[in-house]
Structures are given as structure tokens and as C-alpha cells.
Amino acid sequence: MINKIGLPYTLAPGILGAAIGHFTKNKKLLYAGLGASFLMAWFFRDPDRYPPFDRELIVSPADGRIVTLKKVKEERYLQQEAFQIGIFMNIFDVHVNRSPVTGRVLDIWHEPGKFLPADRDDAFDKNEKHYYLLERLDGLPLLVVQVAGLIARRTVPFVQKGDELIVSERLGLIKFGSRVEIFIPAEKTRLLVNLGHRVRAGESPLALYPWQQNE
Asked: What is the pTM of this model?
């Protein structure tokens, strides 16, 4: 399955290569166009995902490798100590991002910035970003941030403020290799991953946070 955002990128090289190859009788151009279409289809693939059946688990919002894992004082939005988990997506990873919990979108906003390589330590602070402030059904707040990179210069949200989400539901997409950060309140959180671990969006548990009894 190819995400609809990627259809123009997937079809254009093949059509252009076929047209030019037909008129110029140059089969290399045809094969090049078809090859580029195949690569775009691979990049924009959007497979189904199946989350674990446990409402206390917080699953990964992105495919990739964990490059940041630290406790920070998140004062702007969560206004408390939180674990920051950064996931770097290379160009071979699925780039559709997913909701880490079942809940709703409290707010969503865009912040302009630079386009430094996404694996740099200062990429989160300096690069362009899309923020998603989420709330689990029991009231637990979470912050998910799409971070643009050197090649990935556009983040595409699939949701709006007020939307209700099921865990693993599609949240957005980043075009061409980048990273996603998630902030989880530190108190009571039990981390289930370490630096260097590879994770899958919508399936891999990142942490466990006990269900709050205020339903």
C-alpha cells in the first residue's frame, strides 16, 4: 500500500521516463524512470500496523532507531519532567507516523526553523517542526514532534485539533528521512527501550505508564 501523499512522486518519474523513452527510443531513460518510480513507491509505502492490546503501553510514533533517550524539564507544554525519546528515520524506513496512544489531539502547530541533518544533536532545537499535543483517554498528556531534516523539508499532518485517535492510527508523514521526538511525563513511567534500539511505528512499546483512575 502506498500513502496517497506519495502517489504524484511515484507516478511522475515512470510516466516521464516512458514518454521520453518512447519519443527518443532510449530504453535507458525508460528504465531509469521506472526505477525511480519503484524507489518512490518503496519510500511512501504505508503498511498496516497492529498495536499491542494494553492501554497502559505507549507505542512508538515512528519507525527507526532510538538516538535520544533522556530526562528533561519540558516546561513549554507538558510543564513537568519528561522522558524525551528521539527516533531517527533513514530513507529506508516507513515515514508514516502514528499515534502512540488512544486519545485526542489537544493542539497541533507548526514551528519554522532550519534544515540541519536530522541525526545531529541540535537538530531538534533548530530545525523546522510540527507539534502534536495529545491526551490519552485517562488524561495523560503526551507531546509528539515531527522534525524536518536536510532532505526532509516538509512535515505533513493527517489530523487536526480536536480529532480523536486510536493507538497506531496515522498521525502524519515526513517526506524523506528525518526524526520524531516524543515526550512522556517521567513520574511513574517505566521505559522499555534503550539507545540504539530499532522500533516500528504503532507496534513497538516505548514505555508503560499506569492508567490513571480518573476515567
From this structure: 0.83
